[in-house]
Amino acid sequence: MKNSYRQDINGWVFVHLEGTAREVGFQNGYHLAAEIDDALQMFGFFLEKATGHDWAFFREAASRMFWPKVDPEYQEEIQGIVDGLKAKLPGRTYDVIDLTALNGWIELAWYYVPHLAEKASPGAGDNKSPSYCSGFIATGSYTEDGKIVMAHNNWVDYIVGQRWNIIIDLTPATGQRILMDSFPGYIHSGDDFVINGAGIIYTETTMSMYKGFNETGTPEFVRARRAAQYAASIDDFIRLMSEGNNGAYANDWLVGDLKTNEIARLELGLKNRQVWRTSDGYYVGANFPCDPKVIAEETTYKPDDPGLTVNVRKTRWETLMEDNKGMINAETAMIFEADHIDASTGQLTPNGKTLCGHVDADPKGLPEFIWTPFYPAGSVQAKVTTSKLAGELKLWARKGHPCGQDFIAADFFTAHPEYAWMDKFLKDMKAFPWTLFEAKK
User: Fold this and answer.
1) pLDDT tens-digit series, residues 147-199
2) How far, CA to CA in Å, does 318 sit from each of 283, 324, 357?
3) Which of these CATH numbers, 1.10.10.60, 3.60.60.30, 3.40.50.1100, 3.40.190.10, describes 9-18+133-438?
4) Could you tell me the pTM of the whole model?
């Protein structure tokens, strides 16, 4: 176990991992065995309900398409996770395919399954890609000190998101040191809030209303981990994310380089790629694509539709950025990620249109995705960093709704019994205070 350790802090589980790929995998699996076991049981239940496909389907797809594309280094790490988990919980029978399916569940559930539906019936794959997350990156005249500020909150089903509570401090045998939030059993961040030792920081939000998947491509979770570990510049990041692109988990990536104070937006579809860069400005993400070719060829997104929830959040982000020009810092970023202004009405109304998402309070649900009225989903945690903090491998994180509001499962099921099928795995999601995490010195 070398110098690895686990600490439980304000709803988060912080793990320090170091060594070879097999060693850091074993440490990960051992320290997080209970959480990984719980996550795999939850997904075995939830994904069948959500997609109509059982865990055997996801295992087969992961074995056939993903495992052969996982770099040998990461195959070793995944095997190490399995070994560590079994050392802690000897009765479990999980294998590397279970962990591969776990790492790639978003790609399989919301890109591969719609891809199969689209092949069977054109149009059936429309509007299945998730509307996950709200984030921004800013620099130059927009920030208080002229340096980079980056923030993100994770939108996902609460049944999943209440488990998205890992902070990993990873010192691999090769490549850069990594500090990132993560999910039990992952070798990557997943919702993607990452700082590495070369001064590269990045986050992302998905492109909603998108469809595209290449069965022969490299899974996104592998490409994202490569970028976290081996990118030393924005150009490196773009190259590593683009090579072998399978089109899944198609995102607008918000990237910064602490060495140059430059930020970038990488919009990566399957057919198209666009990059914007600046040393004085901002990029915001709320699940809307920007490039006209991506929009026209790969999505059903309508940029001029004011009723789309993603456009409402886009408007709110742009207002906040301009109204706070020259004042953006870690504290304002925390406030932004907790924002409850519905820009379509101007009212303080937490719902599916606010930056801090509360789809469970929204009678319309999230029409751009599959979240029905009052569906239990929205913001489940948030992170913030700045050039100064990231340069010291530090980030702020808040578990639960970034606004501080608790989700109480019993109250929710009483109000919305149509979702009682989730009660086996959907529990309370309490909000904890903002907490500063730093890599082990």
Assistant:
1) 999 999 999 999 999 999 999 999 999 999 999 999 999 999 999 999 999 99
2) 9, 10, 17
3) 3.60.60.30
4) 0.98
